[in-house]
């Protein structure tokens, strides 16, 4: 219904901002990009042209239709990481809205090319809300600690290193999300990161 009503879009980064962030991280362009939990594709479409192939996963049927009209190749939400390596994996405001964020990150680590990057956005402070679970809580909660925005960024980056990702660049950005009947738009603080894969020492 969101697509037919023109609702559900969000703004995270402009194309120019994404290029600067990827450039600051020394990310290669070209190759394959996948946007995991892509929604209507409005976020990643601003920079997806930097890559040769753009793919996506999305559980909403109406959003999948929107993605197809924007030229995305759709992948299965469970097995997307098994179809070859990606130069860029996008997880944009996904980890606080999915039931198993650790599992998502393990999939991203497995799917990334050795020279690839994970482009990730996460609203802070961390307040997960999952539509598909009975209590709207994740089955896996990220171990993010701290009170301030900066403390939570530091905690998250440390956790990501344990998951096999090293921070290459990051930015703080306003996150504009279309709202509901009570409020037209919501303005939140987004932390946006570019991570590169690293080997985890045992």
Describe this structure in words.
- Helix content is 24%, strand content 30%.
- The protein is of the alpha/beta class.
- The protein has a single domain, classed as Vaccinia Virus protein VP39 (Rossmann fold, 3-Layer(aba) Sandwich).
- Helix 3 links the parallel strand 3 and strand 4 (73-74).
- The radius of gyration is 16 Å and the shape is globular.
- The model is unreliable at 1-8 (pLDDT under 50).
**Under the CATH scheme, which architecture would be assigned?**
3-Layer(aba) Sandwich
CATH class: Alpha Beta
**Shape designation:** globular
Unreliable residue stretches: 1-8
Summarize the amount of helix as a percent range: 10-25%
**Average pLDDT over all residues:** 90
Task: Determine the oligomeric state from the structure.
Answer: single chain
Radius of gyration: 16 Å
The count of strands amounts to 8
N-to-C CA distance: 47 Å
Q: Helix count, per DSSP?
A: 5
| Strand arrangement in the largest pleated sheet | 1-7-8-6-5-2-3-4
Q: Tell me about the biggest sheet?
A: 8 strands, mixed
The CATH topology is: Rossmann fold
Q: Approximately what portion of the residues adopt beta-strand conformation? A: 25-35%
Given helix and strand content, the structural type is alpha/beta
Summed up, the domain count is 1
Write the CATH homologous superfamily: Vaccinia Virus protein VP39
Protein name: Methyltransferase-like protein 9
Pfam families: DREV (PF05219)
Keywords: Methyltransferase, Transferase
InterPro entries: METL9 (IPR007884), SAM-dependent_MTases_sf (IPR029063)
